[in-house]
Amino acid sequence: MTLLLTGVTGFVGMELLARELRDPTRHVVALIRADDAAHATRRLHETLLSVFGSVEPYARRVTALAGDLERPALGLDHATLAALRDVDEIIHGAASVSFELTLELSRAVNVAGTQRMLDFAARLPRLRRFTYVSTAYVAGEHRGTFGEHDLDVGQRFRNPYEQSKFEAEAVVRSYADRLPVTIVRPSIVVGDRHSGWTASFNVLYWPLHALSRGAYPILPARRRAPVDVVSIDYVADAICALHALPAAAGGTFHLTASAVASNIGELLDLALTRFAQRRPPLVSPRLYRHVVHPLALRCVSARRQRFLRATETYLPYFAMRVRYDDARARAVLDPLGIQAAPLPEYFDRLVDYALQAQWGRSGVGRAEALDARPRAATPALTQNGPPKRTVRSTTERGSRSSARSRQRGPSGPAPGRTRPSRPRRGT
Fold it and tell me: In principle, which of 79, 228, 381, 399 could form an S-S bond with 53, CB 3.0–4.6 Å?
């Protein structure tokens, strides 16, 4: 079997690649945004070095393919398209994940790019599965329970990323009568629960870094607002398991914390205890946005103004009122031993790694981080059936590497900076 995997240089994609290559007979075609074949190969090798600590023997089982979701036919010529007719599985995880791009630019990758992937998949004669990595935030600003069967419930969206992923999922659903489609919806994805490793210091990490410095004189948040956080190992294990299970075809699955989700109050307790900081007073997000924030921008230094503007990206996520129903995912994944862990169980490991990596400013590769952690039982994922419980393969513990983890399409400002980083589009 041949798997076409997009987004392998991104956070989730790296973990999916690591799991798929556990099977020594597995061959993966990695569609990578690159100028040419040599550039695609270099990006793949950098990813393998971070994931495994070495390029070989893994490179011989991965074909790097230079492509572009924004170009017709994925930027591939006729000969390459013909050679890909043997592909029988696709996991499409590539996306623009920046909160700051315009809706037009977000749609170019997330909607039009997904449409091109579906058109390509529809021409494959032996396609077994098309798994699409969506996001739980297609729920937008919906209040109350959001089910796995829900999509358009009249919600509004906080940013172009959410709206473009919502629109892309609608396109994927429209192909469900022609293709064996599975849709997975992760919530906020953080580092590995065992090692703390992450390639993405965005979303939750930005406010955590600010809290560690006591940078919030007040915090616009609701104490009981849910904070649905899942570790990357849970997300990747779940995606690979669902992709392999015949019964998951045609389904949509929330990869969320749901019943074990944290809330703002608990997150503050964890962070302030860990960083020994005073608790900032909480104010209504609406009051902050319309009154306090505009006044603060007039009264503080230019440096603090940059910080306040940078935090605007994430403030809406401090006042959410949605809870995700993951009953379908639990019915399938619980018997396989694949479950989300409560954030307090691994919060300190996330922070330990973030401090070691200086909140993303210094590189500690995945292989190095995993090599330093205790061995833990994790599901071994098979291609055509449910995972079996086993100890993580030692092939993932390669030689130590100082190569910096590369991230596709960062979303928002990197922690430690006083202004947002320039947004880039992912591949």
Answer: 399
